[in-house]
Structure formats: C-alpha cells, structure tokens
Design a protein that fits this description.
Length: 75
C-alpha cells in the first residue's frame, strides 16, 4: 500500500466517524456477503447501496434491524 492510498483510507475513516458520530477506532467485527438472490437497492442518506454478492465489513450491530457496515470502497 502506498502512502497516498494510506492517507486516502485515513480520510475515508475520518469521514465515516464524523458522519455516523462513531467514537474510537474502527474495528471490523466480521464480514458478510449480501444475498446473491436479493434485489439491488440504491443508497440514500446514511443507507449503503447494496449489490448482489458484495462483501461488507460489519463495524457495529446497532439493533435487530440495522447494522453499521462499510463496503470495499470504505463507504
């Protein structure tokens, strides 16, 4: 990983923390795949767009219906 890529990832992490008011370091709890049979959904506001078969990093389980995740583009 180059220095430029490192700085870009750090910037994305800071934006993530600011947007979701997330304090502390970002630790990935687990990874999960979006169901390949599901319909693709557009994101909006704080919702992540979902694509079939995409791998997501789970950051926090917020409640029974919502999970704080990020995709491979660190969004």
């Amino acid at each position: 990983m180059t220095l430029k890529e490192c700085k870009k990832e750090e910037k994305m992490d800071r934006e993530f923390q600011k947007k979701f008011k997330f304090e502390g370091s970002i630790n990935v709890l687990t990874r999960m795949m979006v169901d390949p049979a599901t319909t693709e959904k557009r994101g909006g506001g704080k919702n992540l767009p979902l694509r079939r078969g995409e791998i997501l990093d789970v950051i926090q389980f917020t409640n029974r219906e919502q999970i704080l995740c990020r995709n491979s583009q660190r969004r």
